[in-house]
Amino acid sequence: MPHLTIDQREIKVPPGSTILDAAEQVGIEIPTLCFSRQCEPSTSCLVCLVKLLPSGRMVPACATPAAEGMMVESESDEVHAIRRSTLELLLSDHLGDCVAPCSFGCPAQMNIPQMLRQIAAGELREALITVKADIAMPAVLGRICPAPCEKVCRRGNLDGSIAICELKRIVADVDLDSAEPYLPPRRPASGKRVAIVGGGPAGLAAAYYLAQCGHACTIFDDTDALGGMFGREIPPEKLPRDVLQREIALILRLGIETRMNVRVGRDVSFTELRAQYDVVVIAIGWTAAEQVPPWCVGVSGGGIAVKRRTYETNLPGVFAVGNALRGQGTTGIRSIADAKEAAVAIHQFLSGQVVIGTSTPFTTRIGKMAQDELVQLSSNTAQVPRCEAANGVGLSQSAEQAARCLHCDCRALSTCRLRKYSAIYGADPRRFKAERRKYEQDIRHADILFEPGKCIDCGLCVQITAAGGEDLGLTYIGRGFDVRIGVPLGHSVAEALAKVAAECVAECPTAAIAWKKG
Amino acid sequence: MIFWRVVENERGMAYHDPSPPTHATVDDADLEFVDETVERLGRRTEAVIPILQAIQSHFRYLPREAMERVCRLTEITPAMIEGVSTFYTQFRHRPVGEHIIRVCHGTACHVKGSELVQDALERQLGIACGNDTDAKGLFTVEKVACLGCCTLAPVIQIDNITYGNLNSHRTGDVIDAFLAQDCEDKPSDLTAALHDGPVGEIRVGLGSCCVAVGSGKVHETICRTLAATGIPAVVKQVGCVGMCHQTPLVELIPPGGGPSKLFARVQAQDARAIVLSQYQPKNLWRRMGRRAAGWFDRFLSDETPDPVADRAIDVRDRPVCAFLGPQQHLATEYCGQIDPTDLDEYLKHDGFKALRRCLEKLSPEQIIEQVHASRLRGRGGAGFPTGQKWATTRAAASEKKYVICNGDEGDPGAFMDRMLLESFPYRIIEGLAIAAKAVGADEGIFYIRAEYPLAVKRIREALHKLEDRGLLGDRVLSTDFRLHLSVKEGAGAFVCGEETALLASLEGRRGMPRLRPPYPAESGLWGRPTSVNNVETYSVVPWIFRNGPEAFARLGTEKSKGTKVFALAGKVARGGLIEVPMGITVRQIVEEIGGGVAGGRKFKAVQIGGPSGGCVPAELADTPVDFEALSQVGAIMGSGGMVVLDDRDCMVDMARYFLRFTQDQSCGKCTLCRIGTRRMRDILDRICSGKGQKGDLETLEQLSRTVGAGSICGLGRTAPNPVLSTLRYFRSEYEAHLAGRCPAGRCKEMIAYRVNDACTGCTLCAQKCPADAIPMTPYARHTIDMQKCTRCDTCRQICPVEAIFVE
């Protein structure tokens, strides 16, 4: 039984174990991408490098036998730095968007491609759940949003962007009109109370998310109608009032109290509010800095000053969102996005966690695509133009319109190990600037999408297809930097993956081989 | 002055069938060839490389139909054949032009302008960017890593003809000359007449380099002369003499012995006169003929009025003496004296005496003990103690073991392994046999790169002769010792010089190294203990057993014993293949042996160890040749390429050159080498094209250290050395590039061509400029339009009054 140390922890392992086995035994997580228990170690990715002492040699943990008296260093700055560089090198040659440009461009970071896939499949209820995860009032926004998502949609450079906003509206309308509109699940009551000052879009959205977390929310508004500027400033032809009212009513069904015609500072003092509630959220809409009520909250140029990610004001337990922060002209979607992000921080605050708010999700980005790449990318999608009908997209067209989506997002967002470790190690995808490869995809397989640009050449699929008795299988083609995983002798992925496609998808550390459905 | 010359060459034959090119379509009749090939080479997976080589030499590329047929007939799968055929650069997947032009991009060629030669060829043939073949399908231009003719740099090869000492404005002439040459007579089989009484001996060097500068024709002319005159002398082809700067060399030994006479740079038209000057024809009639011929020669030859006086050199001449003086010939014992193919001559020179002693007098343990005592270290580059490697292989428990000779020399700028294999095949085989006895192996393989056809041929022939004579086989030297040896050809992958990659290649796989341990000595070919040693290592083993390990250990330094063979090339006056005792300084090599830097330029640095090595600056030239001392200054012993650089060589460009090479040769297995070297190259490309940014040097340095620390094999771990060593000694040059200036005037994007007052208006530059960047202004000072200029350097080279300069 070899006896070794990893980060000074003594470990006894069965003979034949590797350093990786030893680390696993004591719960030290050494990252791996190209390693699989099913296959021979290929020592390709090198993110599992550890340092041997005292020689200082860096070796891959996955294939280095644990030897008697070995001293291994894993969790040190030096080892982490080399793992980070390795990840950054992989990212510099990894052609894919973790998050699609549309989601990236959406202030609420809504999972637009997923919504579109669900609409295309006729799963409108599922699509609505996707929408409502990020957008509290989709029927309203579907009518008034300036749709920054559509401005960055790749298909915009081909034959018109996807009608994202319209499709979202259809999904929301169908739901609102249904007998039982969707109500998100509520967690058990937390016993915490939140006062929300202002019943406009930001306040309503904050209540929507905080109520789902189990917190008791009360909205204070000094008018007699909720909806804020949505109801006051947008002409009814653009936003029919019954749509607004029905969507607000749906939010209130989560168990939100309202105190209408109550002005904080006049009818109830701010200090009182702070004393009675665990958290106060200021969502009072546009207020010039000099007009902010004298509640002792700090102000800056545009309005109330908050911390960037957490929306905390200078007062403990007091948060602010929406137009109150920025001044006039903020879009509704931005206000709603604020509220969603602030709700995360408020929930952290209320449950005694460290308040860090949301973090920007890790993403790699392809950037601009050439025309021929776009043509290829669109080859597997509905070949119809964008619907430009004056009265919007009809329900009957929705599936077809949604099927125009290029699916720029990654199919393996939650399982991608490259993304996972890049986020953990703080890898910067842009550290090594380089000319990128040409984007390619192979769609000839019925279920599998093959994107060689996402491949990190780990070779797991080469081993799996060879062991799985595929007639063709996959192989390394070329050498060095230009090596690509591909199908031998010019055949297609459909022929190559006849037997073990599922195994390949399961083991692929990125989304180079993925289910088309995502 | 001779700039280039059309010569016959044995090289390249392995690639080509001399028959006319086949067409792109492959019909069933053609596929019968595949069936025959499979029948001949076997159906097992390890036959994949030889099968592909045979298919390519038949079709001149790999037709898909042929590969699919191989898969149907053998155990080879489509995944294997695709993987292997796209890994090795020898294999082509597209039909090629009628003729193939290989442009050597070895180190020596690079520093002498191979890029410009390549550009000029592509321009002249009208080959569009991204293509490799001209529109008519006449020529395909290929880059090759090194043709191993470093002393003739820059070199190109058209089919089987090599042209040396090129420059950008002569490529057109070369193509014309190639097309104009009709099928000249191949050297006929001229056998020397039988003579009674004492005969003279004429030695002609026939190594690949010598052949490339015309020794084949010299040899032929001498044979014809002897046949015509009846002069009692035999012509002997000898291996490399090492004096590559003087080739072709001819040595004449009078009948009955006596002091020999040496003639350098002999050309075919001189050969007859030289022979006649030294020997008496047999009869009066022929004597008269001789006189007439001499007169005729003088009359006809305007180049060399007196070839005899002009070509003669004396070993006591100062330069020759300096070149040969400090050398010691162990690996190259009897260089220039014995015929590489003549087994009897080898036996006469104590051949197989060492093996006989090992078989009859010593136990395997004693053999290893002697190698230990000699303190021999592997000559492949890393310097691992040979005795220790053999002892580990011996100790490994296995019925079956292998010994392998690593002849996959691929460093640009290094050609000593080729020379040793070509010149001393029997000695290397003897060394390998001793190793086999020591480790307990009964099978051995020579792995030689296919780019070395002459070496492959010589070893193959030698093995046949030895088997016929009972020196190899089931009863070696009539003892119980059994040893079977074979030759396997590489297929164009530098990384196969790494031992685990070499083994993968022998097993018919992509040449990708694997993590060690286990070391091949424990688990090598087919999982059996395998001792892999370099050509040069084997070549000194017999010497050690004949002269005693102490004699070997007396040479050299504390930790580096014996001698080392180097290929000395670049900007040095006398390049060649040299063998020097360890401990000699770099300066002695450059200044004494090499005669200093050529052309009166300033000695700047020596690049030692090729793409894994580094640059030793002139200030540190007193560093001794010693494994540890060289690595301390940032270079490595490597396999022995030594390229001398002068003040017109840009060190950033050198770093980039080597990095491009390793990056191109990376197997692609591990991230750090595959992408890391590429990103290093991206940064260097930026710096060399004047687009370097602040922070680039820091990123480059940090990335270099990461790649060096974490890569899986030696290729990746040493790839950053050329960058790190130039950053260490020549950082100011990098900084100058960041500021937009190339101090050596080498990096194209940062230089401009100007004309000074010396211009006489001769219009030669305007006539020759391929880009029409120089308006024709007779009798007036010319000007160069830098917008049109492609920096091909033609004008500067062609100017008769040195009026064109770079700034």
Describe, in plain words, how this protein is organized in 3D.
The complex is a heterodimer of chains A (518) and B (807). Chain A is an alpha/beta fold. Helix content of chain A is 34%, strand content 10%. A 5-stranded mixed beta sheet of chain A has the order 2-1-5-3-4, with helices on both faces. Chain A has a 5-stranded parallel beta sheet with strand order 8-7-6-9-10, with helices on both faces. Chain A has a two-stranded antiparallel sheet with strand order 11-14. The longest helix of chain A has 19 residues, at 332-350. In chain B, a hairpin with a 5-residue loop joins strand 16 and strand 17 (614-617). The two termini of chain B are 29 Å apart. Chains A and B meet through strand 4, helix 2, helix 18 and strand 12 of A and helix 3, helix 4, helix 26, helix 27 and helix 28 of B.
Q: Span between N and C termini of chain B?
A: 29 Å
Task: Quickly name the level 1 CATH class of the domain at 343-554 in chain B.
Answer: Alpha Beta
Q: Quick one: which chains have the greatest interface?
A: A-B, 49 and 44 residues
Give the oligomeric state of the chains in this entry, treating copies of one chain as homo and distinct chains as hetero.
heterodimer
- Stretches of chain A where pLDDT is under 50 for at least 5 consecutive residues are none
Look at the structure and give the mean pLDDT of chain A.
94
Q: Categorize the overall geometry of chain A.
A: globular
Radius of gyration of CA atoms of chain B, rounded to a whole number: 27 Å
Q: Kindly report the CATH topology of the domain at 343-554 in chain B.
A: Rossmann fold
Number of strands of chain B: 20
